[in-house]
Design goal:
Length: about 140
C-alpha cells in the first residue's frame, strides 16, 4: 500500500520546495544527460572521433555524481513525505547501474564483451531515469 499523500497545494511553496526543485533538476539532468551520452558515445565510436568519446567519459562521471545527489534527495524527500517511495526505489538502481556503466565503459576500451554490455545497460539506465522523471515531474499535474 502506498502511503504517499501529495501536498494539498502544488505550488511548491513551503519547506519542501527546495527538495522538489532539486529532484526536478537531477531527474531532468539524468534523463537528458543520458540521451546526450548515447549520442556522444555512438558518434565518437562510429565516426572515430576520440574527442567525443572523451566528452562522453567526462559526462559519464558527472552522471554518476548526479545519481548520488538524486538518491540523497530522494531519501530525504521520501522521509518528509514529499515524494513517493518508488522514487527512492528507482534511484538506488540508477546509482548502481551508473557504477556498472562506468566500469563497462572503461573496460570496453579493450574488451568487446564489456562494450556489448555497456549498450543494454545504457538502455536500462534510460528506463530507470524515465521512471524517476515521471515520479517527480508527473506529481505536479493537478486533476480537476
Amino acid at each position: 500500500m502506498n502511503t504517499f499523500q501529495p501536498a494539498a497545494r502544488n505550488d511548491e511553496s513551503g519547506a519542501g520546495s527546495g527538495l522538489v526543485t532539486g529532484l526536478k533538476i537531477t531527474t531532468a539532468f539524468l534523463a537528458i544527460g543520458l540521451l546526450v551520452q548515447a549520442w556522444l558515445g555512438s558518434s565518437g565510436y562510429f565516426n572515430r572521433e576520440p574527442d567525443l568519446i572523451t566528452i562522453h567519459e567526462m559526462l559519464g562521471n558527472l552522471f554518476f555524481l548526479g545519481a548520488m545527489v538524486q538518491i540523497v534527495l530522494a531519501f530525504v524527500a521520501t522521509q518528509k513525505n514529499l515524494a513517493p517511495k518508488v522514487l527512492l526505489y528507482v534511484s538506488g538502481p540508477i546509482l548502481l547501474a551508473s557504477v556498472a556503466q562506468i566500469g563497462l565503459g572503461y573496460a570496453g576500451r579493450e574488451n568487446a564483451g564489456a562494450m556489448a554490455w555497456h549498450l543494454p545497460n545504457g538502455v536500462l539506465l534510460m528506463a530507470l531515469c524515465t521512471v524517476a522523471l515521471i515520479q517527480v515531474w508527473g506529481r505536479t499535474i493537478t486533476r480537476a
